[in-house]
Specification:
Elements (H helix, E strand, L loop, with lengths): L9 H10 L1 H19 L4 H30 L6 H8 L5 H32 L9 H26 L3 H26 L11 H5 L2 H4 L5 E9 L5 E10 L3 H23 L16 H23 L1 H4 L2 H24 L7 H23 L14 E7 L3 E4 L2 H17 L3 H14 L9 E10 L4 E9 L3 H10 L3 H9 L7 H5 L7 E4 L2 E2 L7 H17 L12 E4 L5 E4 L1 E7 L5 E7 L3 H9 L4 H9 L4
Helix pairs in contact: 1-5, 2-3, 2-5, 3-5, 3-6, 5-6, 6-7, 6-10, 7-11, 11-13, 15-17, 20-21
Length: 611
């Protein structure tokens, strides 16, 4: 009679739960302590609101907790004596594997279940509509996050032969995309003036970042109490946009578990103690360690501030030094010896260096024409510009103007290094003077018909008359002036703006608060008409250097350059905006005088200025 083959051993499962109780027990305790901290709020709504944000934090917690769980459960694979001893028992690898995986999942299910049950009555007592539902949602999200990270950690266990190797492989799989992104952004992108390395791809392949996005969106309901003071009396929550990635990660987890099982069945027990259990991964990890060393050098330069003061040759020298350190550190880990400085290792480093040098050279030559790329108008669906304000243009004329501005920037080809050099030379010659704003940052994002997004950043000299006229015009359009500061991007025309005419809560100009008698809907209507008139006249570009200034001598004898005053309008608790009124904004200055903010009152603080 054939014997039964078991995929699960209850003794192993029970032993895992009891033996490693300190790990998941401490995890449960930390979750409950976190719940206590959330309860320390004056308004009960914020208890529910903060609980709704917990899944974002749980992604970071699960990143480390899942690694610890996988390390202790499969730790016998890293100790030679224990590895041979346990695998000599009459227990199949499939039974051993499934039992460990199930107990590892319980390391999260049990603590989060306790937390969810304890949180239920607390959330039910908040004014959040169906607030109790936040608890099961949190339970589901947290465990799906844990499932992914635990599956990834278990996969890394089978790739490595010791804990350090496991942590290295786990770190590279989680953050490898950002190591590549930083390396490209640090070494290659500066060779292509104007090009911005998009971080979108790096973000998508960085699980902890994507799993930390919003799952639950909350909204408040406010009402006035008997004293006229606003109080939060309710709220609701809706689904965020992170669910798609979470469900995809859960599906990937199943693939990882299957791959982990296949690797475990074929694992050689004599690899216990080695840095890697799969020797074919050694070249990949050696290169990854070398590139990580180069990235670490870049991070060090930025953290210490040396990256700004050093020139490109020295930056490349530091990158190469980091490459050498990372390469030989990787060799030492792989060979478990410090005797790695032999010809074969140097040959490998030489090949890697030659490959990077060739890549840098080809990038500098721009054989693909990336730096000189200019879109055709028919390729562009929309374009977003950013100077001091930003806006998105979809009309043909606007797109054509931005492409023209792009072409003017390409003709100038002013690089960041040149701008920094000019700034250093100016301050060396004039240490006590203010640096003249003789160039403008231009950011352009093209959204193409084929779904691609292309971003560019340029520095346009102020001497470029045509470019300056385009910047002046588009930094003073109604959608840019109002939409940027208020967040009301739907305001595109004067008619759109006039829909927001209402009695305001507060208006201030400079340091002058508009009197209560002027806080009427008519005042706001007149203000909007003045804004529209100045935008049409081209007198409201939100860049100070496009406007005249007045020199004012303060009481201490110092001269101050004044070219405008800040306007702040609060229409409601949800709607407000601010902008600059300049000395040539005739319509707005006339409106300001009509509400009591005369020129004398606006300029008075500057005359009374003490340095």
């Amino acid at each position: 009679m054939p014997s039964k083959t078991s995929f699960f051993n209850k003794t192993t499962f029970r032993k895992d739960l009891t033996r490693f109780f300190p790990l998941w027990g401490l995890y449960a305790l930390c979750l409950l302590l976190g719940l206590v901290l959330i309860m320390d709020e004056r308004e009960k709504f914020w208890i529910a609101n903060n609980f709704a944000q917990l899944p974002r934090t749980m992604a970071v917690i699960n990143l480390f907790y899942a690694l610890a769980a996988a390390a202790v459960l499969f730790g016998d694979l890293y100790n030679t004596r224990m590895c041979y001893g346990l695998h000599a028992l009459p227990l199949s690898r499939r039974s051993w594997f499934v039992s460990h995986i199930l107990s590892g999942l319980c390391f999260s299910l049990i603590p989060t279940a306790i937390m969810a049950v304890v949180a239920l009555p607390m959330l039910a007592g908040t004014p959040m509509e169906n607030g109790w539902q936040l608890s099961p949602y949190w339970f589901l999200i947290s465990n799906l996050q844990y499932l992914f990270f635990f599956s990834l950690a278990a996969f890394c266990v089978q790739c490595a032969g010791n804990w350090l190797g496991m942590a290295a492989v786990y770190g590279l799989l989680n953050f490898g995309s950002y190591i590549i992104y930083i390396l490209v952004n640090f070494l290659f992108t500066p060779l292509l003036p104007g090009v911005i390395t998009p971080s979108d791809t790096a973000n998508r392949f960085c699980p902890v970042l994507m799993l930390s996005e919003r799952y639950l969106e909350t909204e408040q309901v406010r009402t006035l109490d008997s004293k006229g003071i606003e109080q939060i009396t309710g709220g609701s929550f809706t689904m965020g946009d992170a669910w798609g990635y979470l469900l995809t990660a859960a599906a990937v987890s199943l693939v990882l578990l299957i791959g982990t099982y296949l690797l475990y069945r074929r694992r050689k027990l004599e690899s216990a103690g080695d840095f890697l259990a799969i020797r074919q991964l050694a070249p990949v990890l050696a290169v990854a360690m070398a590139l990580t060393g180069s990235v670490a050098a870049w991070i060090f330069l930025n953290a210490t501030g040396l990256g700004y003061s050093l020139g490109n040759p020295l930056l490349l020298l530091f990158a190469f030094a980091g490459l050498i350190v990372g390469w030989f550190a990787g060799q030492m880990l792989l060979r478990r010896s410090t005797r790695v400085f032999y010809l074969r290792s140097w040959a490998g480093l030489a090949i890697l260096t030659a490959a990077m040098a060739a890549g840098l050279g080809l990038t500098k030559l721009d054989v693909l024409g990336i730096a000189d790329w200019l879109p055709q108008p028919e390729e562009v669906t929309s374009v977003t510009y950013s100077f001091s304000v930003d806006d998105t243009l979809k009309d043909e004329a606007g797109i054509a103007d931005m492409i023209r501005l792009h072409s003017l920037c390409l003709e100038e080809k002013l690089t960041m290094e040149q701008v920094d050099q000019q700034r250093r030379e100016f301050f060396q010659a004039h240490p006590d003077e203010e640096y003249p704003y003789d160039y403008y940052d231009v950011y352009l994002s093209y959204y193409l018909n084929n779904g691609r997004t292309v971003r560019r950043q340029y520095y346009l000299p102020a001497t470029n008359t045509e470019g300056m006229e385009l910047i002046r015009h588009y930094s003073g359009t109604l959608p840019a002036v109002i939409g940027y500061h208020s967040g009301k991007r739907e305001i595109r025309t004067p008619e759109d703006l006039m829909k927001y005419v209402t009695k305001p809560l507060d208006i201030s100009i400079g340091n002058i608060g508009v009197a209560e008698e002027y806080l009427t809907a008519q005042t706001v209507e007149n203000l909007f008409r003045a804004i529209i008139a100045d935008c049409e006249a081209g007198n409201l570009a939100q860049i100070a250097t496009f406007h005249p200034y007045q020199e004012v001598e303060g009481k201490d004898g110092r001269t101050i350059k004044v070219n405008g005053h800040s306007l702040y309008v609060r229409l409601s608790e949800q709607t407000s905006f601010s902008l600059e009124i300049f000395l040539d904004s005739e319509n707005l200055l006339a409106w300001a005088e009509s509400v009591g903010a005369t020129e004398e009152k606006l300029m008075e603080p500057y005359y009374n200025y003490y340095g």
